[in-house]
Amino acid sequence: MTRYRFLSVCAAAILIACVVPFADPVQADPAGCQSAIAKQLAKFKKKHLKEHVKCLKKENKGTIPGPCPDAAAQAKIDDAAGKATAVIAKFCTPADLAGLNFRTDCAYESNTAGAEATCAALPVSVGPDIQPDKLAECLECWKAAELSEYIAILYPSHALGVCGGTTSAQSTACSDLDCTTPLPDQRDLTGGEGICQHGIGKAGTKYLLKREKVLEKCALEGGTQASCLADSEVQLKLGKIEDKKATKIKNKCGNRDPAPSPPFCCRTGMGNACSVAADRDACVVMGGTVQEDKTCDMGSCAPTMGNKKITWWAFCPETDTCPGTALSTLDDLTACVDTAADAILDELMCLQFRGNAGADWPCPPSE
Fold this sequence. Notes:
The protein has 367 residues and is mainly alpha-helical. The protein has 2 domains: 30-259 and 310-358, no CATH class; 264-303, no CATH class. It has 13 helices and 9 strands. It has helices spanning 3-23, 30-61, 71-91, 94-99, 114-120, 132-154, 159-162, 191-220, 225-230, 232-253, 280-285, 330-352, 355-358, and strands at 125-126, 129-130, 257-259, 264-267, 274-275, 289-292, 294-297, 300-303, 309-311. The termini are far apart.
């Protein structure tokens, strides 16, 4: 072989090596695509909830000013979203997404406003083809709005901060909460209340993520909402998850009962001398010291009678008709966490499992 012929053969080999990977398109694999969507969005949801909980714990302690998520927490959430989008784009093709019955737009709900309207307006397709990266961003948007709503339910004393100043449909961060009257006191919680609130937040977020993991596994194996919820093994797992959540809340809250505006005493003199103040801020303006779990009784701070309180909703916010279920005990609160998590989880599941035009995992009728 001459030197020139050797060079031409090598050049041809290099050309082939460079061209072949780009000439061979990604093969359609709907099952692999569906799995990638579920697993990557699960990572995004975990990061979204975890960063909110961490941020709110810091805000209660006064180490950051709030509101949450602050810039540092939001950056981590955005990074998780970017990574999830990249992997979904790698494993999905437009043909996969069409075969999985995903929408060609992002309008998963009608008559939207605020954050939901922003999500509904996102582009998903180029021509007739659904773009995997655009669909991922669409689903992340909807899920972020639903998860922020859930955080606002778990942390009522920070609901306005989490939802951008309003819990209505106009919120730029949250899907709207159904029933929020009366709105609980908006303030940082410390001491026993802070411990209880953080316990509810951690237990509630873990409950949602673990419940979803069980149901997603069943769905990826071909199960429908009806068949999965009827499966005895699935029910056993879900029951254990629910029991652990209830135990964690009980351990952190003791016998605290929910109340939108728990009592306090404004200590303004020597010993336990006190003055009546309209609210905690007014007490501070008066030069007083706020004492939780006490009341100003005949000019003296005295412990409250009965169970201590946790600043929470008076009625469970996630309901079809207001005012919703009245909440007076810690057991009521725990049941409300179940109700809220299950309702929001139904919406999260229906967004990403679109089999049989959405019939396998139907969205709640109200959506």
